[in-house]
Design a protein that fits this description.
Layout: H1 9-16, H2 20-32, H3 49-76
Helix pairs in contact: 1-2
């Protein structure tokens, strides 16, 4: 609607109960990726998924390392 200039974006946003800025963000995403399904609800485009998987692995390893450090301090009675 707004992309085809049938109605002003402000009016469409008000009718849908969403912020105007959100509507503009969606319109820009549709312009940048025409023909591709809109990615929403926290899902990444297919090309972004490998990076997200690696970020999750890094986070898990950091948590594991912190747990091992705590265990070492307990075993060695190091008060740090």
């Amino acid at each position: 609607m707004a992309a085809r200039k049938e109605k002003p974006a402000t009016q469409i946003a008000q009718q849908r109960g969403i912020p105007r800025k959100t509507l503009y963000t969606w319109m820009e995403a549709a312009r940048q990726r025409p023909g591709e399904p809109f990615v929403g609800r926290g899902r990444l485009p297919a090309e972004g998924q490998p990076l997200r998987d690696l970020q999750r692995q890094v986070h898990r390893r950091q948590e594991e390392n912190a747990t091992v450090r705590k265990a070492v301090r307990l075993v060695t009675n190091d008060p740090k």
